[in-house]
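Shipment paperwork, digital attachment
Item: protein structure file
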Amino acid sequence: MNIYHSDDSTKPPGTFILISALLIHHLLGALTFPIAKYGLAIIEPFTFAFYRYGLSSIVLLGIVRFRKANKPPIEKKDYLKIVGLGCLIIPFNQTAYLFGQSLTGAGHGALLFATVPIWLFLGALIYLKEKFILRRAVGVALGLAGVAVIITTGAVELGTQYLVGDLIILIAVFAWVTYTILGRPLVFKYGAFRVTAYTLASGSALYFPFGLYRALIFDYTAAAFGAWLTVIYVALGVSVTAYVLWYWVIKYLEATRVAVFHNLQPVIASVIAFIFLGEPIGWAFIIGGAVVLTGVIITEI
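Attachment content:
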């Protein structure tokens, strides 16, 4: 028996729609790498994050306000959970990632985030009590192996000088996994739009004092118009659209099932970089990409 109610559509969408939404989520995320790379070269990361989350929170809260009619009120006991999720997704996930990436080597962040499916898989088994399915475990393992082949080829340097940065990025990784696992029951009750909107808004409020300080001391004369367009894309394309799609999909699909799709993002990002930035694709990418796709196919058989 389902103990949750929801303000989303009462009829579950088909598998094709859900998988398509999941692929769009990862496509939007993959596009962030080349787009944000340009913007972050001009706008320092913490100021970038301040405007990104401020804009996305305003848009999401506006949408929720428009759709509020006939929606069940949020229970008082769940407000603290929502604030906790907001703390996870912005101060601990995004801010820790930006800070950690500045202290570690190139490729380390991408490689560490490639472990997300493993932690997500384990978290779903332990906390959400999802059923262990061997082919999904194999798919997750293959996905991690494929991403490791792609990312580590000449991209990752090992050394104790990167340890602090790597540990901080791991905090960001665990924050994203926890945000996903703990948020799923709330999405059942209140829907993806409201949970995403309120978590981002609460996280933005927690980040606001530090973000405002960085925004006030930022030299705006050096920021080109194109850089601000990247902020708008990341805010609306990722924080609004991709985040809502993520919570919407995990409402209907088991977290152990969607975990392996996370490894498609670096593959998609590499293809985009090849098409638009002319970055080379070698045999490591072809082999690693094939292994990732094999993992996804095994999971969906």
